Amino acid sequence: MSAQGLETALARLYTDPDFRDRFLQAPESALSDQDLSAGERDDLLALDRAGLVMAARSYQHKRQGRRKPAEGL
Amino acid sequence: MAPDRVGLGWRPGLAAHILSHPDRIDVVEVILDDYFRAPARALRSVRTLAAQIPVLYHGVGLGLASSHPVDKRRLENLARVLDILSPEIWSEHLAFVRAGGREIGHLAAPPRSEATVNGALENLLRIRKAVSVLPALENIATLIDPPGSKLSEPAWTQGILEGSGCDMLLDLHNLYANALNFGQDPVVYLRTFPLERVRLVHLSGGNWIPEPPAFAAHPGARRLLDDHVHDVPDPVYALLELLAEKAEASLTVIIERDGEYPAFGILLDQIDRARAALARGRALGRSFTGGRLERARA
């Protein structure tokens, strides 16, 4: 279950700006209610912060420009 | 061996141009997810297209490289569309796109661990039950080195390909971007992937973006974003040449362009450059193999 918890925490970091800001300012506190093993918590605490911010911005940009279903070709 | 092929990603903004140049474009690639909620006439139009030019099918939203099961409804939609289109080959990404009820909205790199290798293999079993034909699996670009990763990207990819028997769709710009963003030589990095499994190739372009100043490794640090709205850079053609030298199977190469379209002639020129890179690589591969055989006979 915990492997799923790590992906869930990552998805939240990518998509929830308030959670991401809390994580960047006080990471241990932000992760306190996440379903993570001690090792996974350490992995997240050592996370590539520049990459996190860049990836989150990129995903937000993609969500805003999402394609519509095809009507034809 | 069947000849290598080169084509374009099918996009509505390029459709008329593609259909006007059947002599220059061997194949097109249609995005499957665009048709999950499409009316029947849209799927009929894809079948009509496939009668005019070879079509590959590409999924973008399954999120199979995850310890979470793939979304059941999305898999049902995929199965319905693939049943109608009956492709010989289709592809999906080695990515996770949702977790814990959250849609990330794009392809995210999961932690490269035994858990996600096993999760991907379980998801591929679910996919095989639903659609019978397994996808070729594509490497993705990432701006973040995914936390919790215990395996290198090539080792993680190989674990999934070997465990599933899937072929690989090797996106050379994704590989190029990941190599540059995380301190690898792209040529060395390419050689570490399971090239014997590659059947499909994507080429695209990207843009350098600055790291946020608060967290930048050093002033001016930047990373390459794979954005599909820039031309294929020269080093990626060199990687294609090397791949063609090493690959054992026929390759089908798709150039992906998702917007900011240049004059169509520029895209046709990129197709020609890809074709030329393949030809050079194949010639090098033959001369190497021939030389080795001659040495063995001596």
Walk me through this protein's architecture.
The complex is a heterodimer of chains A (73) and B (298). By secondary structure, chain A is mainly α. Chain A has helices spanning 2-15, 17-25, 27-30, 38-45, 49-64. Chain A has one domain. Chain A has five helices and no strands. In chain A, α1 crosses α2. In chain A, 38% of the residues are buried. Chain B has a domain at 9-215: Alpha-Beta Barrel (TIM Barrel). In chain B, strands 1-2-3-4-7-8-9-12 form an eight-stranded parallel β-barrel, surrounded by four helices. In chain B, α4 runs parallel beside α5 and α8 (234-246) packs parallel to α9. The mean pLDDT of chain B is 95. Chains A and B meet through α1, α4 and α5 of A and α2, β5, β6 and α4 of B.
Question: How are the elements arranged and paired?
Answer:
The complex is a heterodimer of chains A (73) and B (298).
Chain A: H1 2-15, H2 17-25, H3 27-30, H4 38-45, H5 49-64
Chain B: E1 5-9, H1 15-19, E2 28-31, H2 40-52, E3 55-58, H3 72-85, E4 90-93, E5 96-99, E6 102-108, H4 114-131, E7 136-138, H5 153-164, E8 168-171, H6 172-181, H7 186-191, E9 198-203, E10 206-210, E11 222-226, H8 234-246, E12 252-255, H9 264-297
Parallel strand pairs in B: 1-2, 1-12, 2-3, 3-4, 4-7, 7-8, 8-9, 9-12
Antiparallel strand pairs in B: 5-6, 10-11
